[in-house]
Amino acid sequence: MTLSVAVSGASGYAGGEILRLLADHPDVEVRTVTAHANAGQALISHQPHLRSLAHLELRATTPEVLAGHDVVFLALPHGQSAQYTDALRDTPLVIDAGADHRLTSAADWAAFYGGEHPEPWAYGVPELPVSAGKQRDLLRGATRIAAPGCNASTVALSLAPGVAAGVVDPGDIVSVLAVGPSGAGKSAKTNLLASEILGTANPYAVGGTHRHIPEIRQALAAASAPADGVRISFTPVLVPMARGILATSSAPIREGATDAEIRAAWERAYADEPFVELLPAGTFPRTADVLGANVASLGLAIDRAANRVVVVAAVDNLVKGTAGAAVQSMNIALGLPETTALPLNGVAP
């Protein structure tokens, strides 16, 4: 049976990437695409690379337009998804690519987003180690899924195996990320103009203010660390590449943990994961290697001089960081083969 799908925010980057993946999915049909300011225009005028969907026109984003589908993707700015969730209560599966339903803590929501705390949904990072196994188990049969923040899932996947195995201390994590501007969305912003970002690197949300921090803490706490035991210094840096995240994260080594035990923790966690790869010792990823792929590529180093584990992770923020995670979670929730329509291979050069 072919499942009907609606995608909101279809003229944006995340919505467009969700559509690119769904266009090749044999079990779904994209029937409805919606937008706000661009409603009434042809999808192809905003997503010219989506030739197979050129017949679709952007409709207004309203509960009435989104209702009546088997699956609805909400690819809207943060704070705009929750207004539709009650109206979509009869929709079998709703997946939110925004932040509205990610956080379980009302206090964290108030501190980093403000306003009424929406209901938390199943977190869409299947490979994430949790105390009971993997987050995948909590996605099977789910009807409401919160796709992750791209920076948050990259850091969480980097360190969760060590936290879960007890070989690193999550109380002193340091993460510095080089990120492309597509993660900030498609809306015109002066600081994202080519003349502002080409030839320079710009830190932002410095000093514990980035909204992905509570999401990282929540994800690592689920790996078995107490929530109040996870402390992270998180610094993103905007760099002139359209797509990509290169995250360098480190954490102290627990007393007594051997080098073999440390590497084995990551090897066990991701040995059977098609979309998370642990590179050979001494090898580290480049963002170019995962461009267009639904893959998180990890390189691990053990720095005994500093007594820290260092993990370098590369992802395409629009694929594995957002749209790919959403489609992968959809496949799991619906009982479809998890890898369906998800690219393993990247694009080069």
Descriptive account of the structure:
With 349 residues, the protein is α/β, with parallel strands linked by helices. It contains eleven helices and 16 strands. The chain has helices at 13-22, 43-46, 63-66, 82-85, 106-112, 136-139, 150-165, 194-197, 213-222, 259-270, 319-333, and strands spanning 3-8, 28-35, 58-60, 71-74, 93-96, 122-123, 129-130, 133-134, 144-146, 173-179, 202-203, 232-238, 245-252, 276-278, 296-303, 308-315. Strands 3-2-1-4-5-9-6 form a seven-stranded parallel beta sheet, with helices on one face. A hairpin with a 2-residue loop joins β7 and β8. α1 packs across α11 (319-333), α7 packs parallel to α9 and α7 (150-165) packs across α10 (259-270). The mean pLDDT is 95.
